[in-house]
Amino acid sequence: MKRWIDANTWTLGLAVLLAILLVSTKLIQPDFGASGLDSLARAALPFALATVGMAIVVLAGGIDLSIAAMMAVASVTGAVLMEGASDGQSVLIVLGVLLLGLAMGAINGLLITVSKVPDIVVTLAMLFVWQGVALLILNAPGGGAAPWLRALSAGGIPGIDWLPRAVVFLAIITALIWVPIRRSKLGLRLYAIGSDPLAAFRSGVPVGQTRIIAYALCGLFAALGGLSVTMSTGIGEPIPGPYLLASVAAVVLGGVVLGGGRGGILGPILAVFILRTVRMDLTLLSVDPNVAAIIEGTIMVAVVMFGAVLATRGHKT
User: Fold this and answer.
1) Nearest CA to 59 among 190, 151, 169, 152?
2) Whether the Cβ atoms of residue 277 and residue 21 lie closer than 8 Å to each other
3) How far is CA 232 from CA 32, 57, 236, 295, in A?
4) Taking Cα atoms as reference points, which of 133, 152, 161 lies closest to residue 37?
5) Is pLDDT of 2 > 90?
6) Is 181 exposed, middle or buried (CB count within 10 Å of its CB: 0-12, 13-18, 19+)?
7) How far apart are CA 133 and CA 135, in angstroms?
8) For an engineered disulfide with 81, which of 74, 93, 296, 298 has Cβ 3.0 to 4.6 Å away?
9) Which domain range does residue 152 map to?
């Protein structure tokens, strides 16, 4: 137990910080309860899914600046196809959108691997490509979402009203995808190429293939994030939301080193809820929205810069 605590000290600290923030929220707004937790969870769900995807890429030593644009493509594709579709058809549409996310991410990884151009340059270019694709599919918010899909993240669990469905949905999806990968050879390869790609290559790890898979997984979670936007709003959003910087900030705050090779998934997810709770508390305190945006942006930039400094020092040592 002591060894586990020592290995997860940062994550446990984030959990304690989140609990303190939630208590503070209750003090600020005495009426804050199950409905407030549900609103917080639904607002955090797209950010959390984007953060998991970004964390996988960062663990593998990369970064994906196009994640918000891929979310927009998934959102509008699902919304356009699901409008007027039956439940059976909408299930197939959701599966198709997830495959689309895998394909978009794999294209990013393939371009990086084949061209040898830095991932930050390739994914910045692909940001504009995917953004253009989203606007071609739907040039304004619209479309629809299947009722069963919207119900996945709305309200609490029957009999456990204080536990939001959005949190359960996030936990199940993340566990189904990430836990088997983390415990497999693929998980070891992701960490290996993030720690030292040359050493990983000399050890027989297919670096290019593993990098493509990492970006494909990022695309999958981006698709899930885009679908969660449609689940929450009932329509498709063609304009990328503020998920890029928020996901990078949450990844760093969650204990993942920007250079790759160190960290996990639970910490970044907790960091998402911390950042969303801070935003909610600022709103409850009636802070001017412009000032709140400045505060939130400053926190994110400070966290990312701090992570970059740590990553730079780590490479030097």
Assistant:
1) 190
2) yes
3) 20, 26, 10, 25
4) 161
5) no
6) middle
7) 5
8) 93
9) 39-240
**Which residue, chain included where needed, has tokens 């619209």?**
142
| Lowest mean pLDDT segment, chosen from 9-13, 78-82, 123-127, 281-285 | 9-13
CA–CA dist 215, 153 (Å, integer):
26
Q: 269 in a domain, yes or no? A: no
Residue 21 lies in a domain: no
**One-letter amino acid of 126:** M
Closest by alpha carbon to 250, among 230, 270, 231? 270
Domain count, the chain: 1
Backbone dihedral region of 144: left (phi > 0), alpha (psi from -120 to 50 degrees) or beta? beta
In a domain, 100, yes or no: yes
pLDDT by residue (tens digit) across 43-101? Answer: 999 999 999 999 999 999 999 999 999 999 999 999 999 988 888 899 999 999 999 99
| Residue 130 · residue 70 · CB < 8 Å | yes
Please give the Cα distance from 312 to 317 (Å, whole number): 9
What's the confidence (pLDDT) of residue 74? 96
Q: For residues 308 and 295, what is the distance between their CA atoms, to the nearest angstrom? A: 20
- Give me the count of residues in the chain: 317
Tens of pLDDT, residue by residue over 233-262, are 889 989 888 899 889 889 988 888 887 778
What one-letter code names the amino acid at 147? P
Question: What's the N-to-C CA distance of the chain in angstroms?
Answer: 30
What the block records as the tokens of 206 is 């297919």
